[in-house]
Design brief:
It is built from 5 helices and no strands. The chain has about 110 residues and is mainly α. The protein folds into 2 domains: about 1-85, no CATH class; about 90-114, no CATH class. Helix 1 packs across helix 2. It binds NADP nicotinamide-adenine-dinucleotide phosphate. NADP nicotinamide-adenine-dinucleotide phosphate (NAP) binds next to helix 3.
């Protein structure tokens, strides 16, 4: 449907020591870039929209400076190998979580159906 996907939090809100992760740092060193820049590049090269948040001017400048290099296919695969196959935020399949997020909306639908 030509729908563009946006990263929920492109740096996973800084979880999992993402800015110092050694696998990412090895790749970053190859391109003379930072971990953050490699992460953004990995997302952008997959067609994913990114809106990274920072309150630091130097980091904002760093985060926009990602359009002068391209990760190789091998490096894209290396980044993908870090996938944990689970959300870093909450489990979308957990009924308790769904109830917490959508509880009031679900109740409205159920009430309408009565
Ligand atoms: N995550 C959510 O639940 C959620 C929900 C709705 C909307 N959004 C929006 O999505 C956007 C991004 O989400 P987010 O802020 O939750 O997570 P994020 O962008 O994945 O991570 C932000 C964190 O990364 C740090 N950071 C940013 N650039 C960095 C760099 N170059 N080097 C080192 N650290 C860096 C920031 O610290 P500093 O600020 O100290 O630099 C902050 O702690 C925001 O615009 C947010 O409003 C998020």
């Amino acid at each position: 449907e030509d729908i563009r996907v946006e990263a929920w939090a492109p740096f996973a809100e800084g979880r999992n020591d993402i800015f110092t992760n050694e696998t990412i740092a090895e790749t970053a060193a190859k391109y003379g870039k930072s971990n953050g820049q490699v992460i953004l590049r990995w997302l952008l090269q997959r067609g994913i929209t990114v809106i990274p948040k920072s309150v630091h001017k130097n980091r904002m400048e760093e985060n926009i400076d990602v359009f002068d290099f391209e990760l190789s296919d091998d490096d894209m695969k290396k980044m993908a190998s870090l996938n944990k196959n689970e959300s870093q935020f909450f489990d979308h399949r957990d009924p308790v979580t769904i109830e917490q997020i959508f509880g009031s909306s679900l109740k409205m639908v159920q009430d309408d159906e009565k």
